[in-house]
Amino acid sequence: MEHWTLPGGAPVPITLQAGRSGLSGPGEPAFSGAAVPAGDFTLTATLAYQNLRDGDEAGLALRGANGGWVSIQLEHITPALLVAARRHAPGEPQVHGRLMATTAVPGWYEGRIRLRMERSTGQIRVSYALEGGEWQTLGPPLRDPTGDTAQAGVFAVDGAER
């Protein structure tokens, strides 16, 4: 991860070592975040990537204390590099979250992509932009599954080791 920004904050450079556990898998995921206030916010990050392997994923997530989460993430699934929106409601059986929208992106071996998550009136909109490009909305608005207490931040999963 290159940087992530919380509301009212300056970009914070961060390098995150990928973990073996996903956002709702067994064990603690490789996640770096901060509590977000109730209400509306925008979260952005620039993800710098290289030499991704099948199953690797990284991105932005909003994680609730209730176990619900929503993410916009880069996923390497041979033969494609994808940007995906995923959602996990508390109690749902999908450990990796329900796939809500996805699209292929260029840049097989290395590149940068900007990710954005906006929460407004209980809905979350996700978008992405290729380096130097315009923001592209990914799918329809998602219902926020996180409840009253949530953390927003970045995560990385080493899919080859799951």
TrEMBL record:
Q: Which organism is it from?
A: Alteraurantiacibacter palmitatis
User: Mind telling me which InterPro entries this protein's record contains?
Assistant: ConA-like_dom_sf, GH43_C2
* Ranges for domain Beta-xylosidase C-terminal Concanavalin A-like: 15-141
* Name by which UniProt lists this protein: Beta-xylosidase C-terminal Concanavalin A-like domain-containing protein
